[in-house]
User: Which sequence fits this backbone?
């Protein structure tokens, strides 16, 4: 590898055309400048200057070395500028969150990125363990959990909560169904259905509730945006967080049945502990918090 100091001395000499001016510019002696050039020539094994008394011209090899020196200067200047600048409209934003929240968050982040072409936007819907591990490993800038993070490399803050909803067809009896009514209608299952049913139905049917894994199923689907579809056409019921309705086009065909014991899941915004966040993530955090705040609102146009 070429000696960087010798290369810079030679590049400066090629620009000034004078040992005297080069020495003054670099705060060196003239013999020091001459020594750097000779050492660089020895390292390359070829003359870089044609000397004619006190004047000189560059050899073809010297021209190439000069070009290299100028290119390295430009690269260093670019590096310094990049390190010194923290552009809020440039770089990668990566967020991992539950699927329903992702469906609400992604359009909001897209609107932010639409006028900022240098932003690289990544939103991943993922299970809770994947979110936690991804933030700890640095694969995601931010993550959303339903519980406080239990990891030494991750920190978090509770930013809201969202309601779990018992979804029924809009034209069904608006009163609270009995457990027998639910069993007769049948559960539209999905990957989180048993867990969410335990959280919501167990406290509302404490005497007879058999457990989410024992509920009668009427169907199963793992595409989040399509889970409400069978319910909307009168087939079965299901349990989803409110954010799970965000991507469904026919919400007017659904009703959220009011239950005596309302259940909410916490929302925790997590990031890697000790990381200094770049400026581009400030807006992302504001958008995430605003999305969570919308879910924390007790209102809703689907409540019976």
Assistant:
């Amino acid at each position: 590898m070429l000696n960087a100091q010798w290369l810079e001395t030679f590049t400066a000499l090629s620009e000034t055309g004078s040992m005297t001016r080069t020495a003054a510019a670099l705060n060196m002696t003239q013999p020091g400048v001459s020594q750097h050039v000779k050492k660089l020539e020895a390292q390359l094994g070829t003359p870089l200057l044609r000397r004619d008394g006190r004047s000189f011209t560059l050899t073809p090899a010297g021209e190439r070395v000069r070009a290299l020196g100028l290119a390295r200067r430009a690269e260093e200047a670019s590096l310094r500028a990049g390190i010194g600048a923290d552009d809020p409209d440039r770089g990668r934003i990566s967020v991992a969150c539950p699927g329903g929240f992702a469906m609400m968050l992604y359009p909001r982040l897209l609107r932010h990125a639409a006028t900022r072409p240098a932003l690289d936007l990544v939103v991943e819907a993922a299970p809770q363990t994947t979110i936690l591990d991804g933030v700890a490993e640095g694969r995601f800038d931010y993550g959303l959990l339903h519980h406080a993070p239990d990891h030494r490399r991750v920190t978090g803050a509770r930013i809201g909560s969202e309601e779990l909803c018992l979804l029924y067809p809009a034209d069904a009896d608006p009163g609270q169904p009995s457990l027998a009514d639910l069993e007769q209608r049948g559960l539209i299952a999905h990957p989180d259905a048993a867990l969410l049913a335990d959280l919501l139905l167990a406290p509302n049917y404490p005497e007879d509730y058999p457990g989410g894994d024992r509920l009668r199923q009427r169907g199963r689907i793992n595409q989040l945006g399509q889970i409400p579809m069978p319910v909307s056409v009168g087939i079965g019921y299901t349990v989803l967080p409110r954010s799970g309705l965000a991507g469904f086009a026919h919400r007017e065909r659904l009703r959220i049945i009011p239950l005596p014991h309302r259940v909410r899941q916490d929302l925790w915004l997590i990031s890697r502990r000790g990381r200094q966040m770049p400026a581009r993530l400030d807006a992302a955090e504001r958008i995430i918090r605003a999305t969570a705040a919308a879910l924390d609102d007790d209102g809703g146009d689907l409540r019976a």
